[in-house]
Amino acid sequence: MSARDLQGEIRELRGRIAALMDEAANNEKLLRRSQERELELLKAENMSQLFDAICKGLKASYALESVTLLLLDPQHEIRHLLIADNVKLEDFPQVLFTDALAGMAPQFNSFHRPWLGPYMGCDHQLVFPNVTGLKSAALIPLRRQDRLLGSLNFGSIDEKRFSRHLATDFLAHLGVIASFAIENTINRARLVRSGLTDFLTGWHNRRYLNARLKEELARAQRQGTSLTCLVIDLDRFKQINDQHGHLAGDMALREAAQRVDAHIRGSDAAARFGGDEFVVLAPAIAPKQAACLAERIRATVCDTPLTLPSGVQLNMTVSIGVAWITVARDEADLKAAAERLLADADAALYRAKQAGRNRAALASGEMPDKPCG
Ligand SMILES: Nc1nc2c(ncn2[C@@H]2O[C@H](COP(=O)(O)OP(=O)(O)OP(=O)(O)O)[C@@H](O)[C@H]2O)c(=O)[nH]1
Description:
CATH architecture of the largest domain: 2-Layer Sandwich
Number of helices: 10
Number of domains: 2
Number of strands: 12
Mean pLDDT: 92
Distance between the termini: 113 Å
Strand content: 15-25%
Helix content: 40-55%
Bound molecules: guanosine-5'-triphosphate
């Protein structure tokens, strides 16, 4: 090999080394930027800071057209925690809430790894609402301990940005960090609000009812009386949310709670059990009185429509399951008795729904034609 050839080879080698060094420096920069971003997510002290770090921070850092965060929130708990913290949901249009992921995009049907591929309007528009011009997308599952929290979604106008054969490890890692940060901020918000009160309706919450149920059963056992349980569930409540919006749904829940409240005695225990379900415990009443109470509650909810701020008249109805229990003196397991009572009332509620809704059903026996007559 001549000296000239050798020099040429050395030049070429130097060029390759320089290119490799550049690539390494770039990768390092990318890694540092990713670490900084992840740190921002982990540092977020509340949900609005986290939403900013995700939707604005990641969008700017990775120069994306759109970043959305889709959260599973079937009980509207996250939304209520946000509202209780005075966060305006409309300030975060990139944060989306859903009762179920299935139906939002076909990729969510089996969603264990990040999905990367071409943006398809018909498949992905619910995940990137009001965004046009996207060519490729990445949908990253958010999971904590086998529980799906939602999906972090990146949209790009570059069709090559997210293609099916790209490695997904980096995005999967980001998904893990984001999931951790989301769960953390939600738990922190829960902790602040973890009392015995449901802050939407002002009623007691499920925790209170569970404690009270055991006390009431113990009292009924001591006194040899029965305990009646009514499970009251709004009918087709999902439609109210879907047609009039979540805030109208909240108004309906509050109004229904107030109307039911007017029929509850001081000795009764009542709680919002979750979602659109309320539970009333009435000690020492006969089955006929329980049926009458259920009928009065049913009637009070459906008698007058609720007027929404938009002027729309909303017809509300409830279905009610009624069950009662007498606890034997030697029954030691009050927890099992509590579960039995709730399960019986739930089964009766199911029958009321099956029979056409806007009615009450008793756990044993038929509802009298005129329970209060
Ligand atoms: N606005 C609002 N919606 C809620 C809240 N909690 C739960 N939901 C919604 O309430 C709906 C409850 O629906 P389901 O109980 O499944 O069914 P439904 O539409 O009431 O139908 P039936 O019970 O079969 O009559 C879901 O869409 C929940 O997302 C809340 O606090 N506020």
